[in-house]
Amino acid sequence: MFIPNHRVRKNTHFFTYLVLEILVINAIRRSRMIGVKSYTLLFNILLFHKPKQ
Predict the structure, then answer these.
(1) So what's the pLDDT on residue 39?
(2) How far is the C-alpha of 7 from the C-alpha of 29, rounded, in Å?
(3) Alpha helices in 31-52 (DSSP H)
(4) Do residues 48 and 17 touch, judged by C-beta distance below 8 A?
């Protein structure tokens, strides 16, 4: 079965950001940061992360 290149790339980006999000959430929890500050940090890290192409 042929899978279009676009679909493969879209799934790769999804799983890359999923793994990044899990790692960042784990790091924030270990630092014991709570409240809005932790969500702001998480949002900024995920927003400004630029994958290499």
Answers:
(1) 80
(2) 33
(3) 36-48
(4) no
